[in-house]
Each structure stands twice: as structure tokens, then as C-alpha cells.
Description:
This protein is of the alpha/beta class.
Amino acid sequence: MTRPMRPAIYFNVHLVSDSTGETLNAVQRAACAQFENIQPLEHNYYLVRSERQLERVTREIEAAPGVVWYTISDSALRARLEAFCRERSIPTLPVLDPSIAMLSRHLGVSANNRVAGQHAMDEDYFERMEAINFTLAHDDGQNVDSLIGADVILLGVSRTSKTPTCVYLANRKVRAGNIPLVPGVALPDFLEAMGDKGPLVVGLKISAERLVQIRRQRLISLNQEDAGDYADEEAVRDEITQANRLFQRNQWKTIDVSRRSVEETAAGILNLLIERRGFA
Length: 280
């Protein structure tokens, strides 16, 4: 006997940051993913660096109580936010504090509490921007003549998350490009001829059942009912078979994305790069 579905639990999550809020969003979503049937209602406040900005935040927290996660470096603003929440019994969590404290103890030095320190415009920043620009210029089979300059080239049939995976890799300073595998359309000549000396080529595999499901959902979102062989099960199976034969013939590394998130796929590709040439 199956248990009845428990109603979803809705709750307010206030994410307060003196920077872009990327860290808070990542932590909040990772934590909430560990609970079934919950629906966090996100309230995001970015670049909070003055008392006036914090006043607006506290007004909204008071209007919709919940939990407060924050990354604020300024000690006065931190103290004011914590006091406000403590008076109203609103749970707060300074998400970076445990990590900073651990590093401080291990290294024997104090943190500088620099606002948005992870976004400094240093060499690392410009390498990331260069990778992102390269990836955007080489998305979906564009500019194949210069694709030889990539760190990794992803191949896959339509709807295997090639573009978001490449963008994620670019944020890790990986120059990534992708080429769609379209029936009847030939690949660039250099791709099968370069062997192990060029970019790492990775084939994205997927089950036919999963791909049909994704493509049918895509058609629904576009209000399209008939798209020929695009979501036809037999045609999809043949398309996948041809792609898999291509990967096997060229002995290219492959990753099955049938039930993987973009982050998991990207992590697998980063591991392949590390194995191949110590890429960091």
C-alpha cells in the first residue's frame, strides 16, 4: 500500500548578500534538495552594503518571516541583521563563517573580510571571461574553423544539454565548444582526424526513452504537436544508435546524461580533463 503524498511545505528563505548572492543560492538549493516535498520561497537581496539597504531587507523579512542566510562582511551590518532576527526569533545562518573559521585556524592567520573577494578582477577572473567568450562563440556548431583551440568539444544529439554544460565548464575556465549531431549532416573534417593531439572530445549519450520524454516536453512548451521525427521513438532510437557508433568508432570518451544534472556531467568532464593532461 502506497503512502499518500504529503502536502508540500512552503517557507520563506531570505538570502542576504553584500555580493552577487551566488554562494547563498548554491548552498540554499543544495540544502533544500535533501528534503522531500518542500518549496522554499526565495527572497533575494544582493549588494547589500549600507544601512539604508539593510533597512529595506529587514522590512521585507518582517513582512514574510522564515529563515535568513547571509554573507555580509561588514561587522556593523552583520550585528544589526543578527540582532533584528534574534529579537523576532528568526533563524539566521552566516553560511561562510564555518569555512572561514576552519581555514583561519588551520593557516594561523585572520581573514581580511573583504567584500566580494571571490570576484576580484585578477588573472583568474580574466581567464574565466575568456573561456566564457570562447564558449559562446563556439556554441551549437558555430565557428568550427577555430574550434581546434578548445579544451573540450562536446558532441551529442539534440537536447543532451550540450550548451548549459559548456557554459558551466567555461565558468571553471574551460574553453568548451559543442557540435550537434544531426542526421545527414557531416562533422567537420578535422574532428575525426586529430586523434589524441587536439581538444578532448566527449560524446554525450542518452537513453531513447529519456530523450523522447525531453523532446516531447520541449514540443509542449513550444505549443507544437507535430515535428516529424524529432520525438518519434523509432527515429530517436536510430539517431542515438548512429551517435553511439560514431563515439565507438573514434574511441571518444562518453558520458551518459540520461539521469545526470548539468553539474554532474560537467564534473565528469573535468575528471576526464584531469586524467588526460592534469588540467586544473
